[in-house]
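Justification of resources, computational component.

The compute hours requested in this renewal are based largely on the per-chain cost of generating structure records like the one below. Each record pairs the submitted sequence with a full structure-token output. That output is archived, and it is also reused by downstream analysis tasks.
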Amino acid sequence: MARKPIVNTTINGNDYFRTRLLIGIDKDGKKLYKNFYGKSKGEAENLKKDYVIALEKGINPDLGSIPLGKAIHDWLWTVERSSGNKSSTFERHESTYRNYVEGSMISKISVSQISKIVLLKYYSDLLESGKSYKVLENLHKFLSKFFRYALSEGYVVRNPLVGLKLPREDEDEIEDNDTKIETLSDEEIKRILDSLGNKKLKYIVMFAFMTGARMGEILALEKQDIKGNVVRINKSLRTVRVYEDEDNYKYELKVTRPKTKSSNREVPLPETLKKELKNLSILVKEEKLKLGPAYEDNDLLFPSITGTYIEAKNLRRSWERALKKAAVPHKKFHSLRHTYATRMIENDVQLLTVSRLLGHSSIKTTEIYAHTLEDTKFEAVKTFDAMFN
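The structure output for this chain reads:
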């Protein structure tokens, strides 16, 4: 007959053996214990032994057992929010957590059980669901940052993201999450500019077309950024979500510095554009005189009619109206940057030079424009086939 296990406590009608471990003393001097329960004395003692071994290795087993979603949430709102990050950085982290961690298949897994296999499965699922490779990269950086913190705090004994390679992307991603390179013909550019007349949008469009600068970079420019024949691009205007607490936030315009050194650049100004900027200066002075003391002079190159920053959403609306007025098919404002790049390559400007003018962090991104032009050449020669078929 089997020997009956030794037990010393009953919970919900079930018998267990309980043993405990002194883990500290509270502020009032009271001893704090952690309980371990097993169906036998040996099982309970083994649980306590494993716990002590983990502590000796610098791991806090209680922290490691927390679901990943809760652990990241607590880290995000207690550590990251007060760590001196730019508001735009915290907004990006919060958005990544809300969209790709909270409620996901990995959120319910305990921190200590997250492994390379689990993460690779989740990454692959995201790609298969249509998420871009850029989303994957941002999530990977976010999780890496959390697990570096988790390792330092004893949540885990090793960082599961160290050495983890992302699933290979099936095709190159075009910058700024574009999935198609749209360009404007010379005729379309001319029709847009002619329809605008002496409006500020005309000068913004010309600037984008002749420098290849991004919308945010253009809207952040100050007059002092124009030095002789070049424009110095070293900042960008963004609309960011600024949190008062977890449930309350507001949107603010923020000027942020580029994430990469390559985005800091100087771009030559064509003589035509330099002349047009003089007309812009006259227009801005007229707006300032018209508004009088209510004008807020921020020394911006492209200020609003009140002297403040122009919001991106307002510029996009104006751009859409301009396309309709000029009877030009809808294309993103970013197509002006694509047009700048393709014109450069069409005129045999070296790819490395184009890459630096655009502020690309890798020449691989710039190569996409060259590949597109090659495809265009192949399409062009098909006209001969059509002649004889």
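Residues 226 and 271 are 13 Å apart (CA to CA). The chain has a mean pLDDT of 83.
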